[in-house]
């Protein structure tokens, strides 16, 4: 098996894996999604919610927030307390959620949770628990996918003008020393 990192940007990484079949890659994908422990909001205590959003809907939105996880400091089942308190007029964003442990925080700070009009307020306490994706989707560490790359080869005896192929698919092929490469 040969693994090469092609790109890394923000929270995304792209790898090229050679020497394995689709069954193996699907097993890796499933293991990552189901067996990597991460924090997610499990229990929500709403002390005040005068917004137009139902308590259950707000709790569901909080439960789906992606949280950074310190795997060295916590074990499965352990929890961290998080708080959310805001008064309108304002839009409550994921960045407004505060953690008692700075190592456990919301990954994406720009997720809108609820709009508050003047005089409306939310005051919420949450338990973020470390769990596994096999228990619930909120504990999946991310989206993992794979695709098989096509193997392309050329028989130069049958190609009269390689430049026509280069023009037909710009950026897909290169002509090096009289040979076409992908």
From TrEMBL:
Residues 12-180 form the DNA-directed RNA polymerase RpoA/D/Rpb3-type domain. The keyword Thylakoid does not apply. Its EC number is 2.7.7.6. One of its GO terms (cellular component) is DNA-directed RNA polymerase complex. Keywords: DNA-directed RNA polymerase, Nucleotidyltransferase, Transcription, Transferase. This is DNA-directed RNA polymerase subunit D. The keyword Calcium does not apply. Transmembrane segments: none annotated.
């Amino acid at each position: 098996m040969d693994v090469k990192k092609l790109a890394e940007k923000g929270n995304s990484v792209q790898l090229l894996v050679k020497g394995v079949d689709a069954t193996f890659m699907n097993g890796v994908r499933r293991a990552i999604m189901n067996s990597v422990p991460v924090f997610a909001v499990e229990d929500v205590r709403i002390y005040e919610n005068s917004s137009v959003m139902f308590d259950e809907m707000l709790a569901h939105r909080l439960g789906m927030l992606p949280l950074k996880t310190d795997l060295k400091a916590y074990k499965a089942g352990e929890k961290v307390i998080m708080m959310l308190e805001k008064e309108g007029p304002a839009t409550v964003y994921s960045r407004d959620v505060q953690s008692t442990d700075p190592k456990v925080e919301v990954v994406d700070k720009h997720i809108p949770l609820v709009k508050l009009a003047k005089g409306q307020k939310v005051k919420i306490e949450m338990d973020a628990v470390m769990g596994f994706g096999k228990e619930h989707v909120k504990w999946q560490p991310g989206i993992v996918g794979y695709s098989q790359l096509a193997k392309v080869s050329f028989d130069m005896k049958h190609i009269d003008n390689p430049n026509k192929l280069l023009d037909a698919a710009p950026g897909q092929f290169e002509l090096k020393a009289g040979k076409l490469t992908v």
